[in-house]
Fold UDP-glucose 6-dehydrogenase.
Amino acid sequence: MVKICCIGAGYVGGPTMAVIAVKCPEIEVAVVDISVSRIQAWNSEVLPIYEPGLDEVVKQCRGKNLFFSTDVERHVAEADIVFVSVNTPTKTRGLGAGKAADLTYWESAARMIADVSKSDKIVVEKSTVPVKTAEAIERILTHNSKGIKYQILSNPEFLAEGTAILDLFNPDRVLIGGRETSDGQKAVEALKSVYAHWVPEDKILCTNLWSAELSKLAANAFLAQRISSVNAMSALCEATGADVAQVAHAVGTDSRIGPKFLTASVGFGGSCFQKDILNLVYICECNGLVEVAGYWKQVIKVNDYQKSRFVNRVVSSMFNTVAGKKVAILGFAFKKDTGDTRETAAIDVCKGLIGDKAHLRIYDPQVSEEQIQRDLAMDKFEWDHPAHLQPAAAGADKQVSVVGDAYEAAKGAHAVCVLTEWGEFKGLDYRRIYEGMQKPAFVFDGRNVVDVEKLREIGFIVYSIGKPL
Ligand code: NAD
Ligand code: UGA
């Protein structure tokens, strides 16, 4: 029986390994983590992450060929293939702070693998890492190799949160990069045979290590660039009377461009787009490619601009001040169908409004009050560094309260801001909401989910992204 161990039981490690276990019943999969609470949650009825379809997959194989454990060393020692899926956040201190990837967690995982291994291993980079990381990892693994042979593969993950299970069951492609030696190619084949249980062969792309590592950063940069492009257009639409949805449709109908990922929004969020582009920018700068770095940096600048443009719109529309005014925030997660708030646009928007002394009442169907208060108390880039994952101080911010539904959030409010595209926000009884609000009642739709005409008929003043006012 082939044994797989995955270090890191997070948004990637958990779902990815659950799908491997369900598709490959003859492979034993152990997912390990240093976080005791996370592992406890994976072994409980309430999984640590909310992801449609995940519960069913985990329940099918947990305790059979899928195990969650904190006994990191034992499972690593026993495994033939070790996936490393630890967090690789942006550095907050020292050389490259604010841009470079912090590989502390990766390095400590690699050192541990080197220390506990007693047999040859394939070590798979699942985390998103800077190009050439495999070379550094190889050096760490072999520094006290005790005659053990390691093959490093790059196998970046392309799943998106909210659709992780669908993406894993039916990926556009699986990418495997390996050394172009005969041992390297044998390792590529071994990993390929795992995915071949359910992924058609023509969708398993094999490249050299550096292409695989760089392709992951490139894919995220291209995806984010599309959003910044359509968001940049949304500003021009508002200035000219064009409608960004119509423009995006007309542009996306060109088969060379394609219709996906052209939805204008208050700004992209999530743990990866910004982090990975900053990482790319840093690598370009280190290689003396200043113009290339500047090109990609602009994707983030436009995203920051979009978020501050939204805050400015709210404040300027409400007679240039929101001091003491109540603002309902509908949605805090970085997208629908996830409880993840990492780098969500809602953090910057809420901080902007709090800065102008607004009182916020926040509702999100999947995000807890503790998480929201912690996010709003934390500095940029600190969220992914465990030392900083402290609960917010009791009674944290009096300007912010978190409530249990959208109607409660909007009660007595001067304005409603929609920041996540949760389906339930489309079907709300906006007449009821209007009646309970202060007048004039404003709606600022950062996700273009409300029916603008209908809301205007009710009496709302409505602002949508990239639509005529
Ligand atoms: P995460 O923070 O949810 O999970 C990482 C886990 O690794 C944590 O539970 C942490 O406790 C654990 N960990 C850290 N160091 C460890 C160690 N030495 N030993 C054991 N466990 C350790 O992160 P994530 O969202 O799953 O992302 C992981 C990687 O995958 C990142 O590089 C990210 O860029 C990449 N990625 C993420 C997504 C996504 O949708 N979240 C998609 C594709 C790729
Ligand atoms: C993204 C990529 O889509 C995945 O392929 C990749 O594996 C992952 O990053 C990663 O490396 O972490 P994710 O961040 O989970 O996945 O979610 P996306 O669906 O890409 O959305 C990212 C952000 O962009 C969200 O805030 C979303 O609301 C926003 N977005 C997306 C838009 O504003 N407009 C769009 O048209 C699409």
